[in-house]
Amino acid sequence: MSEPLLDIEDLVVTYGAGDTAKVALDHVSLRLEKGQFTAVVGESGSGKTTLANVVVGLLPESAHTHATTAVLDGHGILGLSERQWSGLRGSTVGLVPQDPGASLNPVRTIGAQLAEVFELRNLKLSRSEVRRRSIELLEQVEIDNPERRLRQYPGELSGGMRQRVLIAIAFGLNPKLLVADEPTSALDVTVQSQVLRVLDRLVAEHGTTVLFVTHDIGVATDHASRIVVMRDGRVVEQGDVESVVTEPRSEYTRTLIGRIREVTPPAPLPTRTDSDEVVRVSAITKEFRVKGRIVHRAVDGVDLSVRRGETVALVGESGSGKSTTAKMIIGLTTPTGGTVEVLGRNVARLGHRERRHHWREVQFVYQNPDSALDPRWSIRQILDEPLRSFGIGDAALRKQRIEQALGSVNLPAGSLDKYAAELSGGQRQRVAIARALVVRPEIVILDEPLSALDVVTQDQIIALLIDLQRNLDLTYLFISHDLAVVRQISHRVAVLRSGRLVEFGDTQRVFDEPSSEYTRNLIDSVPGQRFRSSLLVGA
Amino acid sequence: MSESTSERIVVDPEVSEDRAGVLGVVRGLPLPVLLSASLLVVVVLWTLVPGLFTSFDPLTGNHVDKFQPPSWEHWFGTDHLGRDVLTRVVHGTSQTVLTAGIAVAVGLVIGSVIGILAGVSGPVVDAVGMRISDVLLALPGFLVSIWIVTAYGAGRLSVGIGVGIGSIAIFARVFRAEVLRVRALDYVEAAFLSGASRWAVIRKHILPNAVGAVVALAVIDLSAAILAIAALGYLGYSAPPPTPEWGLLVAEGRNYIATAWWLTTLPGIVILLVIIALGVVSRRLLAANRI
User: Where is the ABC transporter domain (chain A) (predicted)?
Assistant: First the structure.
């Protein structure tokens, strides 16, 4: 075995001191051989970012570290001064940060920020030589028209391009170890796959060792040769990628792997008559006035229908108009053109009284349960509000309905007197679902209801939603960017791209033989392709 | 379906504190906050029952005892008429603090009304409200108070209103900003979708969640008002001389500063400490509201 580039043994990191101290890493050991691509997988709070920060020396001052060994390329890395770290950073260890929006200086051009790379390496190059090498760096990360990009500011580039510039900067210093902390989690899937392809190629060309931090096991298995699964500050398991995928040793890893396994979507409901269409959207458009006369068309001629008792998924990348479409269906936004008909009523023409009636039948669940529940209200008050406002029942009946709704989302009756802050993210999302259900609506619009939750909780909420649909004969309009989830839950899928409907059909058909190039591309960009076929055999 | 370990219950320290009773809260506070809060309690007592703290008369003194330096009998010494300075500080509290209270009340009430209306109404009311606050911001506050006191006399009410006008705009702005922040949150939209009327959403969701910052601002503003009133008193724009008032005390001592340092210094320190205490307490309030 060759000498490891990074060797950490029994690393303990705690934040704060005394009673409030929080253990972020609990006896973690990690060895990186030269040239290995290692992915650290874990949900938020698992300590994966703390681990990355130890390696690049970016821990906050409130952190206390202790380890039996912590050696990076022959240097001990605990208790180094800032000056010693700047000797290591760049040449020995480089970082690709998480948020490409916040990691480039917005008031300096791309060219100026790339030129810093050569200054740091003390190369004393002429101006034209710096320019030539900067263009070379941008070409390496496949940015088109590099001469022009050098003069542009970060704000003029897209997120994917900014992330590629950051990768170019990191590789410009040619570090032995590259630490990438969730480099693509702010990007759409198609952009993510392009960026990661560039990263893969550069890593292979330079022979760089990589420590790749991600929450997405699919991304990890697609690119890494070794996988470290973390949870609650501990390493749950580690090993080479094949053995982790095919024979996961822990229950937790098995749940994560379940995500990339191909699932059979629910069979489409038998086609019934047209009267079963509870939502009928025809040719709706929504225009926003941007600056003065410039008009931005967020939704452009979308036709949709949702039948009673089915789940229709609305899929698209950010800016595709899926949330705007949902807001028009529930009647919070009026369409510029076209009609939205819900349960036989034209939503745009509802009077005040009818609109309240409409909201009794169509309810909404928000993406982020933290902001969807009033922090000053107890769960009982939150669930009571819709009943009171709609004037449903007397006190006794309301109490019964609240308890029923709480029971249907599997929360204990004891949670009624708690406040949102006392519940976990998953429990909060259950309360939000209960609030939508307490008025017994026919249709529930779910706007990315899982994206703020970790994988284990996501699985529980998906199971809950499927259960509820079966028992209460609910109709769901499910908005998501996560195709793996969509495949699990929806009968039909509508794919939106920059406001236009590019595809609408039964889930199985759309996934197997998409009719548009864009959908094909979207499906192929979903992480976790590498082991999908072998998992099918194993399953 | 069973709850897995990842769904553990997160107990918010703030919330549990609310439940633990007064003693628990007091024990959990850092020392500066405790000291500041106790000083403020003392100031409130000075305002309500000044007689409990001193046995001297604030208005008449003994000529024999004039210009006594601080001692066990006269903690803050005596002034040029032989009056006990501590007694005058204690009795002056009500003049200064109550006037400051009126000032804050004027700013808080009028500012809140403008701010809330601007925050919850449409763009026209918002523009009108904000232009009114622009006008108020453009006026130099101290000059306005001097003008009002000169025109309407140095009564508690006119000094209070004069100082309070300056803070209307700030209250209006902060309240509007908070209302707009809360209004954009999902739970407000969810309340509308739950069938709640506009007024119910404003009253039950928006105002309770927006008011925290305004309360903290009121505490900060109280210290600014005390300072402004003391400054007015120093310049002579307050109750006429025999009445004790903090700014007036400092002003009177000015004539004898070379021989009797305690006349200006000790009342000045009291003003300073009260203002610092208000700052510390308001910062704690802000933190508790997570702003």
Answer: 6-257, 279-523
- Cα A263 from Cα A281, distance rounded (Å): 29
Residues A226 and A344 placed together within one structural domain of the fold? no
Claim to verify: residue A129 and residue A257 sit in the same structural domain: yes
Residue range A84-106: average pLDDT? 84
Which residue from A372, A389, A422 is facing B196, i.e. has the nearest CB?
A389
- B10–A424 C-beta distance less than 8 A: yes
| Interface contact A359-B197, CB threshold 8 A | no
- Cα–Cα distance between A457 and A45 in angstroms, integer? 14
Rounded to whole angstroms, the Cα distance separating A374 from B189 reads 11
Joined tokens for residue A519: 């959908």
Same domain, A235 and A281: no
- End-to-end Cα distance, chain B: 37
- pLDDT tens readout for residues B255-266: 888 888 888 888
**B9/A374 Cβ within 8 A:** no
Asked if A228 and A39 touch (Cβ cutoff 8 Å), the reply is: yes
HSE toward the beta carbon, residue A236, CA cutoff 13 A: 22
Q: Give the residue numbers spanning the domain of A51.
A: 35-57+82-261
Residue A259 in this model has a pLDDT that exceeds 90: no
- pLDDT tens, residue by residue, B103-151: 999 999 999 999 999 988 888 898 998 898 899 888 888 888 888 888 8
Q: What would the pLDDT profile of B41-83 be if each residue is shown by its tens digit?
A: 988 888 888 777 777 777 777 777 777 778 877 778 787 777 8
The CATH code of the domain that includes A174 is 3.40.50.300
Are A321 and A248 members of one domain? Answer: no
A432 pLDDT tier (thresholds 50, 70, 90): very high
Min Cα separation B183/chain A (Å): 11
Q: What is the pTM of this model?
A: 0.77
Q: Is A464 on the interface with B (CB under 8 A)?
A: yes
Q: Do A374 and B205 touch (CB under 8 A)?
A: yes
Give B202-238 as a 3 state SS string: HHHHHHHHHHHHHHHHHHHHHHHHHHHHHHHHHCCCC
- Per-residue pLDDT of A391-401, as tens digits, reads 888 888 999 99
Residue A289 sits in the same domain as residue A256: no
| Facing A385 at nearest CB: one of B9, B186, B196 | B196
Residues from chain A that touch B9, judged by Cβ atoms under 8 A, are 422-424, 427
Residues A285 and A244 in one domain: no
| Number of domains chain A contains | 2
Contacts with A332 from chain B: Cβ below 8 Å: 189, 192-193
ipTM of the complex, rounded to two decimals:
0.76
A5 located within any domain: no
Residues A258, A252: Cα–Cα separation, whole Å: 10
Residues A216 and A280 in one domain: no
Q: Is residue A16 part of a domain?
A: no
A174, A1 contact by CB (below 8 A): no
B interface residues, A as partner, C-beta within 8 Å: 1, 3-4, 6-12, 14-15, 185-187, 189-197, 200, 205, 208-209
| Residue closest to A96 by CA, chosen among A37, A31, A170 | A170
pLDDT band per the 50, 70, 90 thresholds, residue A477? very high
